Amino acid sequence: MAHGLADSEMKKEYFDDQQTLDDKLDKLAQWIKDSKHFIVFTGAGVSTSTGIPDFRSAMDTVLPTGPGAWELRDNQASRSKKAVVVHDMHKAIPSPTHMALVELQRRGILKCLVSQNCDGLHLRSGMNPKYLAELHGNMNLEICSKCDAKYLRDYDAAAGRLDHLTGRRCDKPDCRGYLKDSIINFGENLPEEEITKAFTHAEKADLCLVLGSSLTVTPAADVPRRVGKRSQKLVIGNLQRTPLYSLATVNIHAFSDTIMQGLMERLGIPIPQWIVRRRVRVTRETSSDGHNYEVLIEGRDPDKPNIPFSLFKTVEIKSDGKDMKQITREPFLFELPKDKIRPVNIQLHFFGHYNELPFDLKYEDAKHIPHEDEFYLFYNPMIGQWKKTKNPEDFPL
């Protein structure tokens, strides 16, 4: 059973004075500019500013989220009502740290992000999964136990069971295997694909930055350890001292957001605004009797279109302002008469974690629904507007 930090010295929180912090960030920024293979390793500390508590912070922590979950358990205490927390992790907005890492990856500066977090925020922030290794799983990801197909959900897919079975099955007609959540519990093996990716990059890295991790959980913590053991630069950003403190080239005692905001200023790279990213696929086929069109609405991973993504709570079909059909579960498949329906309005209702408004797909008639169409929907929660585009980089202002 996992517990908080037993050593009281390891629970102490330290803060570098401004001059010391500036000197360290100056040095780190130059190292990033000079690096050939820069990687980052993140822990729960990168998400505390979003309102998600960590696990091991002490009872006297300065974090607005309050003590870590395991620290509360070990002390048989409850979280204060004054703690600043989100009670639904799907409503958490990615932090400046999350968004800074996304921008570094987009520019090719960050070669791989290795994370212990299962809150899904790195993917939600826009990090390309090709450059992300989630060692402890993702609360939004299910995997088929038979064919290994992946399914993303815009809801909590964690089963909370020892066998990880979610009760859902693979969509593939020739498979129909049982789906399992991807969460890694203590004592379980890490996913081979993710851990291999992480150590492959650790072997190449000439610079590794750790953010918000106590580095007490192995084998995950062995990734930055490997960089340090190879006599490459290891920089640890954490309020508490870690078991790799003496191995690190530099230890920075500051909040993750403080580190990344200062770092991006020195690199001259603005931190992008976060937006909700959705990818939608619409297909139309003639029904077997030849009289109707069969229309299918699907969500897809924004970066990997072969991965289904459950995005919609309901889909409504309307014509001339009249409700024709409402579908409340996947697959969002419906039939339309070939010649009688005009105009057609397909209204997409999302899960609304960020108060997303419904989006209308409007067609002159059923024939004008494309045989196959794929596009992006980007939502700016600050202004409450969607943008439909074919360009994955065409974000709304």
TrEMBL record:
Protein name listed in UniProt: protein acetyllysine N-acetyltransferase
GO CC, any one term: nucleus
UniProt similarity note: Belongs to the sirtuin family. Class IV subfamily.
Domain (Deacetylase sirtuin-type): residue spans on this chain: 18-270
InterPro entries xrefs: DHS-like_NAD/FAD-binding_dom (IPR029035), NAD-dep_sirtuin_deacylases (IPR050134), Sirtuin (IPR003000), Ssirtuin_cat_dom (IPR026590)
Gene Ontology molecular functions: histone deacetylase activity, NAD-dependent; metal ion binding; NAD+ binding; transcription corepressor activity
EC number: 2.3.1.286
Xref: Pfam families: SIR2 (PF02146)
A GO biological process held by the record: negative regulation of transcription by RNA polymerase II
Binding, Zn(2+): 144, 147, 170, 175
Residues the record marks as active site: 136 (proton acceptor)
Keyword Zinc: yes
Keyword Chloroplast carried by entry: no
UniProt KW keywords: Metal-binding, NAD, Transferase, Zinc
Record organism: Adineta ricciae (Rotifer)
